[in-house]
Amino acid sequence: AGGGAVFSSVAFDLVVPNVWAPLLAGQRVCLLPQDVDLSQLGERLVAAGPFSFLKLTPGHLEILAQQLSDEQIAALASVIVVAGEALQATLAARFTRVLGEGRLINEYGPTEASVGTCVHPVPLDAGQGVVPIGA
User: Fold this and answer.
1) 106 forms bridges with which residues in the sheet?
2) 76: domain range?
3) Residues 6 or more apart whose Cβ sits within 8 Å of residue 53
4) pTM for the full predicted model
């Protein structure tokens, strides 16, 4: 258990922390096939986990919300980092309720400059609309 997972193209900057952070900490990196059927994403991640963290897009988070039970979400990763698109508060609400405060992180970083430059732990009450990337 521990480490991270890679389940998207290595050309996507989102993959950088999924590969390097676990390796630098002496943990494993689980490489799912790049052509993994998204209808199996939740099942594949649950089978390979639990992870120290997962970094994914809100689109991936929506897929996991549809495929996983609350118990599976709670056991999947210690921290889930969401980046690459705007995170809607309605989607974040389930994950913060299940994971608890501070375990869902909204991140932003312009690809041209860096992978991530701003992180914001999503509060239990993220409000409505888009979750902010800072306070």
Assistant:
1) 82, 120
2) 4-121
3) 4, 21, 77, 78, 79, 80, 81
4) 0.89
CATH code, 63: 3.40.50.980
In a domain, 129, yes or no: no
Q: In Å, what is the CA distance from 5 to each residue of 60, 122, 123?
A: 13, 22, 25
What are 74-132's pLDDT values in tens digits? 999 999 999 988 999 999 999 999 999 889 999 887 766 667 778 888 988 878 899 88
Starting at the edge strand that comes first in sequence, how are the strands of the sheet with 77-82 ordered? 51-56, 77-82, 104-108, 118-121
Q: At what angle do helices 89-99 and 58-67 cross, to 10 degrees?
A: 60
pLDDT for position 112: 64
Q: Is residue 2 within 8 Å of 22, Cβ to Cβ?
A: yes
